[in-house]
Amino acid sequence: MSHKIALNFEDGVTRFIDANLGETVADAAYRQGINIPLDCRDGACGACKCFAEAGQYDLGEEYVEDALSAEEAEQGYVLTCQMRAESDCVVRVPASSDVCKTQQASFEAAISAVRQLSDSTIALSIKGESLSKLAFLPGQYVNLKVPGSEQSRAYSFSTLQKDGEVSFLIRNVPGGLMSSFLTGLAKAGDSMTLAGPLGSFYLREIKRPLLLLAGGTGLAPFTAMLEKIAEQGSEHPLHLIYGVTNDFDLVEMDKLEALAARIPNFTYSACVASPDSSYPHKGYVTQHIAPRHLNDGDVDVYLCGPPPMVEAVSQYIREQGIAPANFYYEKFAASA
């Protein structure tokens, strides 16, 4: 029996390892070619101190107070030379992937489908045998190489990996390198290279209500997160507000409806900023955040959208005099 451990490095790279029953995380990482910084292996120096963001584990009683205090252990800090996983875990490593002698993984796949969901949004699916080994945390992204060039673009997964296939929501940018390829040249079977996973924007262990705020194609990481929540369940209420500029920018509404049917305590709403919109809910995302969604601060807020939206939401929450328990966000901007 083994457990999967996600190691998140400070440069944004994530690598997954398998830890066998009774094996320390440090030993499991070393066995798979990743050197988490450590000196003693005996729980005495504290050099391998990391932070466990999710999962169950045993630290034993052999480490010393100077290496890891009781208060630190209570907060979730661990010594990887002593940590033995009892479930899948997510561990934040305070060192770069380069220092730990690893790097982001690279995968080869082929286009399985390209769909123009609207004038502004393209859905891309890629599939390959190598992707069956691809693991990522819902919300993370990869760098997709644009065929026929040496340039890459970053896109969040919009689905979980299933049978070696993953999908993305891509903004159709006029003149954009990836957009031009997808709208003019791409066809099923074309090869694509992706590198990752990357990013610190991902679904954490759900300990309180969630407020999810998506702008445009920033919806992508949330549909992946919601797929995961649909699989594992949640006892806490979840609400998504999805904001776009124009009516035609609203996509994947059927997917949100299907997810709402699968997740009993999940609700969502959408809004359109354009004053010419015929959609029932108009305005910006901040105009549709109700006091109950902020739950007097006992809420984890996840936000993915363009920089102006991230700044507007941050300012709005500050103006309410409420400090969320956690506020995770991802800014993105289109590349020409």
TrEMBL record:
Protein name: Benzoate/toluate 1,2-dioxygenase reductase subunit
Gene3D superfamilies reported for this sequence: 3.10.20.30, Nucleotide-binding domain of ferredoxin-NADP reductase (FNR) module, Translation factors
CDD domains: BenDO_FAD_NAD, fer2
Domain FAD-binding FR-type: 104-204
UniProt KW keywords: Dioxygenase, Iron, Iron-sulfur, Metal-binding, Oxidoreductase
Organism: Pseudomonas borbori
Domain 2Fe-2S ferredoxin-type, chain residue ranges per copy: 3-97
Cofactor(s) listed: [2Fe-2S] cluster
NCBIfam families: BenC
PANTHER family documented for this protein: NADH OXIDOREDUCTASE HCR, PROTEIN RFBI
PROSITE patterns assigned to the protein according to its UniProt record, in alphabetical order: 2FE2S_FER_1 (PS00197), 2FE2S_FER_2 (PS51085), FAD_FR (PS51384)
Keyword Metal-binding: yes
